[in-house]
Amino acid sequence: MKILVLGSKGQLGRCLTDQLIKTAYEVVYLSRADLDIGDLASLVDNISSLKPNIVINASAFTAVDKAEDNHQAANLINHLAVAKLADICKSLNSWLIHISTDYVFDGKAVMPYREDNKTNPQSIYGDTKLKGELSITTSGCNYFIIRTAWVFSEYGNNFLKTMLRLGAEHKELAIVDDQIGCPTYAQDIAKAIVFMLPNIDLKTSTSGIFHFCGNQPCSWHDFAISIFLEAKEKGYKVPTTLKKVTSAEFKSIAPRPLYSVLDCSSIKIEFDINPSNWIDGIKSSIEILSLDVSSKKHI
To answer: Considering the domain boundaries, does residue 22 fall inside one?
Structure first.
């Protein structure tokens, strides 16, 4: 079985590389430099020539605030390119595994969101991601859409790495405390995807949307506390004060859902996949980053 990973140098793409290298699958990795998914004509030519059995789309326009002023660019990557991928997969009779987001919801719920709950994105980013989902579900291709949330790892740009950087530079940080979600370790997303692959190989699964995120909800402030507790243990310089602020006080460009906890029971029932243990994910990320820093000091 041949697998194509798009966006292989991104945060999730690099985690997929870490996990897929442990398998016997034939895998082709394409980064943005190798294939710009925004070039729709090139997308058709390249994927059609490769004829993969499964396409894992780890590419996305993920800059939530920048999307507000770059609607066209976000729509191209998160919607139009995804629609083209779905069409290609249908023509090749291939499966498409696509990553989506908790930001397709408005955050007004009081219980964790199920896959069939009403979507109502509040930002350009969330809107383009939802349009990408809809283009897949109406295409007729075989697919798994995985909605996830608050993704972090030792790779790329993410909240954990931002906190480590800012914590080394400032004694006091102000962190939003009224947005509730579930941090998700990107290595766990990659592991979940790899765990789903044999079901496709055996043709035992039907298409569907699944939620996969961290096992415990928290605020960004709580998330930061957990990061700095582990970072301090590893010898990182950390702030002495973490001030709680509201979303209104923080004033981000794009609106964020105040509550975006995802119900992950469906993926547990269908594939026996447990939610991400994000506390362990923090420990793993910081351990790897610490080893990386240590090795550079000896170069």
So the answer is: yes
